[in-house]
Structure formats: C-alpha cells, structure tokens
Design a protein that fits this description.
It is a single chain. The protein folds into two domains: 278 residues, 2-methylcitrate dehydratase PrpD (Orthogonal Bundle), CATH 1.10.4100; 137 residues, 60s Ribosomal Protein L30, Chain: A, CATH 3.30.1330. A hairpin with a 4-residue loop joins β9 and β10. The strands form four sheets. A four-stranded mixed β-sheet has the order 8-7-9-10. A two-stranded antiparallel sheet has the order 1-6. It has 20 helices and ten strands. By secondary structure, it is of the alpha+beta class. The mean pLDDT is 95. InterPro entries: MmgE/PrpD_sf (IPR036148), MmgE/PrpD_sf_1 (IPR042183), MmgE/PrpD_sf_2 (IPR042188), MmgE_PrpD (IPR005656), MmgE_PrpD_C (IPR045337), MmgE_PrpD_N (IPR045336). It comes from Paragemmobacter ruber. Belongs to the PrpD family. This is MmgE/PrpD family protein.
C-alpha cells in the first residue's frame, strides 16, 4: 500500500502546518522503522559495487584528481576513506563525499531513473558511505539510508518535473541524501524535516550544466550536492531551523522555479519497505542513459552497413527527451564537434550511434579517444546522423510505470543507390525488459573489468566479498570498506585556495 498526497503552492495566510508539508512527509518516510526488502537490499549492495567500479576507472582523470586533491586538504583521523588511497588516509566526510561522488559521476556510467524527469539516484551512495564511515554505522544502517534516499529521489522525480523549467535534476538529490542520512542515523522526524528543507533550498541549479559546452562540473555537481546535504543534516542536528515551507511557500520551489506547478507525491506506507530502487536502471555503457539502447542498436547494425562512406543519411526516430537532451533538438552544434569535451560527447546520441556502428564495440575510454574521433571519415559519417522526435516513441516513453517506458530509437539508414536499412530497439540489453537483464554477476563483472590493472585481484575480490555481504557488515568493517588503486602521477595544476598558506 502507498500514500499519495498533493503538493501545491500556498498563500502566506494559508501556510500549511509543518506536519502537512512535503518536507515533513519525506522526513516521516525516513524516520519510520520499516522493514527492508531483501531484493532492494541486494540491489543496494550491487549499486555500491557499480559505484566503486566506475569510480576506480576514473581515478586518473583530471577532474577526479582535482576533487581528490581538495579532499586531502581536510585530513581527519577517524574520518572517511578516499577511493584509490590507502586505508590510513582519511578525510572529513564532507570532502570524502565530494571526491568519491565526483569519481563515480565522471564517466557517466552508473544508474538512471525516469518518470516525469530523469535522475541518477546512485549519486546518493558515496555521501551516505562517507558519513557512515565517520560516525561508525553498520552495513545495515547504510542499506537503510540508501534505499530511503532512492525512495525520496524517485518520488520527487515522479511528481515534480524540473527539466521543463530548465532546472537540473540534482535539485531532487539534495533532499534525498538528507532523508537517507536521517534514516541511516535514526534521527527524529523534526530534525530530518529541517535538513530536508535546507538541502532542497541549497540544491538548485540551472540546466545549463548539461547544455552547450558541458564542463567538468557535470561530474562534480552530485558530490557538491551530497556535501551540502551532509552540512544541512549537521546544522539540523544542532537545533537550527531552515527555510520553510520550501516546496509549498509562495516564494518556494513550486511557486518560483516550477511556475506554480504542483504534483502528487506517492510514498510507501510506514509499515512498507522502500522498494523504488528496483525501478532504477543500470548502465552497460559509459554514456548518458538515452544513449544506452541507441548504442546497443548500433552494435546490432555493425557489419550490415558496409562502408560508412556509402551512407547518405541516418535518422534516429526517438522520444522527445532524447531528441532535446542528446540530439538534434538541443540546437547544440557541439554534439557533432570532434573537439567537444567528453562530457559533451557522452550526451550526444549522434556521436554514440556513429561510434558504436563504426567500431562494433563500446569502451569507456577508447570510444572517446580524441585522435580516433577526429578522423575525417568518421566525422563525415557522424554528421550525417540526426535525431527526429517521433510521436509514437513519445507515447511509448510516457508509459505510466517506469519499467514500461521505451528508451530507444528506430534507425533509418539510407545508402547510396537507394538501399535502406531500418531497425529499432525499445530498451537497452541491460534493462529489466532487455535482451540480457543485469543481475549481481553483471555488476561484479563490471567491477573486475573496470578495475583491471588498477586494483590488485586480491584486493578487488576482498572488496566484492565485503560489498556482497553489505547488510551484515559491522561498523568496523564498513569503516574499512574501500579500494586502494594504482594512481598515475598527475601533473599538478595551479594550487587551489586550500593549499594557500599565510605569507
């Protein structure tokens, strides 16, 4: 059974009591002593493995090294671990959250969720783990926090669309992390309420983060929001208040940023487990989720086309979100620019289709090799790939249930001489409805593949064994959970503010 309640803008004289506000409902969700669903607990552990896999693969990339360098300016005995560094290196949990979440997000290679909007719910995991390590929580506490954060973020994504108003989806991440921390730390409702209000207030940013020239901040943004949510919880625990009602107020999120649009929020009843994590989707490829099925479709078509020089045009008929965010509807010439940043290319469906079709494989690093991307023959073919918004695909994506949505495209390839190749794929192979739905062994295989050459096999298997048994880990074992990796020497950039000393 679930509970549904409306969220609307209120007039100042009709301000709802705290107990009737969305932030309070989310706090009640977090504070309830609800059972843990075994399947949800298993997936929480697998998503931790997934996070660590993609984090390790990104450790030697400059944005991740920069975030790690910032974190090392805040050492703390008994703090949290930083991915890639020895267990003895510990930093304040806020900065561990920032560094580790940046490593996770850098390759755009972890989970996604779609309802009225999109999100990456696994962005919550590293902030929760960092706090759990610093304050001595168990694996069971961490799982409770993870499934709660997933429940909150997915509920907000189902009810309150942000993208239509050009607000970035991390606006839903902050309150989710705050609620997850409240659940993990067993905080009272009133404290979680203040933390959720403040985290929601401080998590807002524009959608420009994913538009035009996409910068390295795309990787850092979730860690920054997680860090902000940790600080919001700390402040609330000290008895401080936060702006409210943050959602319903006449100057609040609905009124100002969503132009007065409300929504219907659905949460599980107090005696029901948090199971929304089961509706979220894994990534088999390092690209924005809208490209997952498109890459799989291109891989199917590899070998059928022959010489791509004979291609006259490629049209990808797809849903509006793909067309606008990752395709021709964005109006961004960057999506066909061989000099574009990796962050831009992992949000370019034309690039992903062209690269996968030409190569017949996809790799988180080699597929983005600037030398190969700049090849004139490839660029010529790539620029023939366009997306087209299709009403039929919109209807298939607008299915009420998240797992019923179609994410893919129909490719129509016209060749010289008039021959046409046409094929479609509704969902990625790794999707629960796909050709090869992912389970625990797929996440473990992803970790082994991405950590090869960076983590010793023994250390990798020890981590997998601990993560697989996450629900049973003691506080001591959880505090030690992490990975030491072989880091390349990074040519240091300019010193930041935190390295400055009084002169």
């Amino acid at each position: 059974m679930s509970l549904t309640f409306p969220v609307r803008v209120c007039r100042p004289e009709a301000r709802p009591a705290a107990q009737d506000q969305l932030a309070w409902k989310l706090a009640e969700l977090a504070a309830a002593a609800r059972p843990v669903d075994p399947a949800a607990a298993d997936l929480a552990a697998w998503r931790l493995i997934d996070n660590m896999a993609v984090a390790v693969a990104s450790l030697n990339r400059a944005p991740v090294a920069a975030a790690r360098a910032q974190a090392l300016c805040f050492p703390r005995a008994g703090g949290a671990r930083v991915i890639g560094l020895p267990p003895a290196v510990q930093v304040d949990c806020t900065w561990a959250a920032m560094a580790n979440a940046t490593a996770v997000r850098e390759l755009d290679f972890h989970d996604s969720y779609f309802a009225l909007d999109s999100s990456h719910p696994a962005d919550c995991i590293m902030p929760l783990l960092a706090v759990a390590q610093q304050v001595g929580r168990s694996g069971a506490d961490l799982v409770r926090g993870i499934v709660t954060a997933y429940e909150v973020q997915t509920a907000l994504v189902r009810a309150l669309p942000l993208q239509a108003h050009r607000i970035d989806h991390v606006a839903h991440l902050g309150p989710a992390v705050a609620a997850g921390l409240g659940a993990m730390l067993h905080l009272p409702v009133a404290v979680i309420y203040e933390a959720v209000n403040l985290a929601a207030h401080l998590s807002l940013s524009t959608r420009q983060i994913r538009k035009g020239r996409i910068s390295t901040w795309k990787a850092a943004a979730p860690g920054h929001i997680g860090k902000t949510a940790i600080e919001a919880v700390d402040r609330a625990m000290r008895g401080e208040s936060a702006p409210s009602p943050i959602y319903e107020g006449d100057y609040g999120i609905l009124a100002v940023l969503l132009k007065g649009q409300g929504g219907e929020v659905t949460l599980p009843a107090p005696d029901q487990p948090c199971r929304a994590i089961l509706d979220t989707l894994p990534k088999a490829h390092s690209a924005g989720y809208h490209g997952q099925a498109i890459i799989d479709l291109a891989l199917r078509l590899h070998g059928l086309v022959g010489d791509v020089g004979d291609v006259v045009s490629v049209q990808l008929y797809t849903k509006r979100m793909t067309h606008m965010v990752m395709g021709s509807g964005s109006g961004d010439p960057d999506k066909w620019d061989p000099a574009a940043s990796r962050e831009t290319l992992d949000h370019s469906a034309p690039f992903q289709f062209a690269r996968a079709l030409v190569d017949g494989w996809w790799h988180h690093d080699r597929s983005y090799d600037p030398v190969r991307i700049a090849d004139p023959a490839f660029v010529t073919f790539w620029r023939k790939v366009q997306t087209v918004e299709d009403a039929g695909w919109n209807r298939r994506f607008d299915a009420a249930l998240p797992l019923d949505k179609a994410h893919g495209a129909r490719a129509v390839i016209q060749l010289a001489g008039g021959r046409i190749i046409e094929q479609e794929l509704a969902v990625a192979d790794s999707h629960p409805r796909g050709a090869a739905p992912w389970g625990g062994e797929d996440y473990r295989a992803k970790f082994r593949t991405l950590s090869e050459g960076l983590v010793s096999p023994a250390a990798g298997e020890a981590f997998l064994a601990a993560a697989d048994g996450l629900m049973g880990l003691s506080a001591v074992a959880l505090a030690d959970l992490g990975i030491e990796a072989d880091l390349m020497p990074i040519v240091p950039g300019p010193a930041g503010l935190f390295e400055q000393v009084r002169g």
